[in-house]
Amino acid sequence: MSDNTDEILGIVSSSSNAPAQAGLAAVNSPYYGWGGWLAFFCIVQIFVQPLILLVLCAADGSAFGDNSSLDGFLILEILGMLGMGVFGVIAGIQLWRLRPGAVGIAKAYLVTALVWSILKAILAFAMLEGSYQEAVGAQEMKGVLTTLIPFVIWLSYFNVSKRIKATFFGEGETIHIVPPGN
Fold this sequence. Notes:
single chain; 182 residues; mainly alpha; two-stranded antiparallel sheet; disordered N terminus
């Protein structure tokens, strides 16, 4: 389209990846789009985390048969890990595709991962007995800490990142899409 046609239609600037939220995006911002730490988060959630979870599920599966309370705990843990893995992949894909609401999904994923980690620790102490309770309970408490650290880092990133603000919330240098006749 010519510049004159764009002016007539009221389009100051547009992008095929621009989010639909609020009718504007900071497409001229150097922070707009998929890249940097956002890309790293997406790659980890979509590709790396599922591989790690498959290995962990296989390791849990190899421990079946030792103790009935342990078996019950392992089944819950495997189901939870698979659920969290799917949720993480969904969050990563939504961010990668720059979908409206993707940041909210990613934050919900982070909160759910932390809650799941705490719940696993509680379940380990509630469901297991004796040496299994001590060993698995201690391992799950470490798991809470190793989940808390990325939770704090990534939640902070999603709350303060210039890239997140420019890409998903239209903050920063903005290009407005103005209705025709205004």
